Amino acid sequence: MTIHRADLLLPGAGRAPVPGGAVLVAGDAIEAVGPYEELAAAHPAARVRRWPGVLTPGLCNSYGPELLERTYHPDPREADELGTEPLTGAALAALEMTDTRWGASARRGVRRMLAHGTVAIAGPLRRATVADAVTRSGLAVERRLTEPPGPPDLDPLAGRPAEEAFVLPPLGFEGRQADFAVFAVPPTDDPYTALTRAGATSCVATVLDGRLVHRRA
């Protein structure tokens, strides 16, 4: 078991913030949520990870197809030629894209998403190699009932309130998948607004299915 504690826990779905809150993870599921002192007293043998900032449900990026099937994420070895930023439009059209190259790009794109606290994307994905990369990563794929307003952004918090980007159900539901993120945002009286202003680039850690899949160096 592992206890992830932070300065503030935002459960989501309108639930009250928990100062000094924590999440107890057993395997790939959430065992309990509450004040750190209570969880630590009940589970003294659990490993503890202390994170600065705000712990929240993981985020859902609404632009799965746009960011993984219509965007090329350059390999670091291509930086001299292509730079390091994602390529779209004419820059993408100039590349010779194969299924293998799309799959490798998607894997790099997924890593960028994880670094933004993303644990799910909205689809649908139509390229088999891209879908395979997403499946292997553990990212959930949700149905997209309406087209997002755009433009596509790796930051799920860009242009929307923080709570709208959280995956459901909220963190208070024991037994749900252990998918959450931590952001370097100081506790305030209005943490949701502070998180929206800071954006998902402030992510310091992402946990997916109980695994620490991103940690800011």
Structure notes:
The model has no long low-confidence stretch (mean pLDDT 95). The chain has a 6-stranded mixed beta sheet, with no helix packed on it. The chain has 2 domains: 2-58 and 168-215, Urease, subunit C, domain 1 (Roll); 60-142, no CATH class. It has 8 helices and 13 strands. Strand 12 and strand 13 (211-215) form a beta hairpin. With 217 residues, it is of the alpha/beta class. The chain has helices spanning 36-42, 64-68, 79-82, 89-93, 99-114, 128-137, 162-165, 191-198; strands at 2-5, 8-9, 18-19, 21-26, 29-35, 47-50, 54-57, 59-61, 118-122, 140-142, 180-183, 203-208, 211-215. Helix 5 packs parallel to helix 6. The two termini are 24 Å apart.
Helix content: 25-40%
Uncertain spans: none
Query: How would a textbook summarize the main sheet?
Result: 6 strands, mixed
**Backbone shape:** elongated
Number of strands: 13
Task: Note the gap between the termini.
Answer: 24 Å
Total tally of structural domains: 2
Order of helices and strands, N to C?
EEEEEHEEEHHHHEHEHEHEE
User: What is the overall pLDDT average?
Assistant: 95
CATH topology of the largest domain: Urease, subunit C, domain 1
Structural class: alpha/beta
- Please give the oligomerization state of what you see: single chain
Strand content: 25-35%
How many helices does DSSP assign? 8
CATH level-four homologous superfamily name of the largest domain:
Urease, subunit C, domain 1
| Spatial order of the strands forming the largest sheet | 3-2-7-11-12-13
Q: Write the CATH architecture name of the largest domain.
A: Roll
The level-1 CATH class of the largest domain? Mainly Beta
Structural Rg: 18 Å
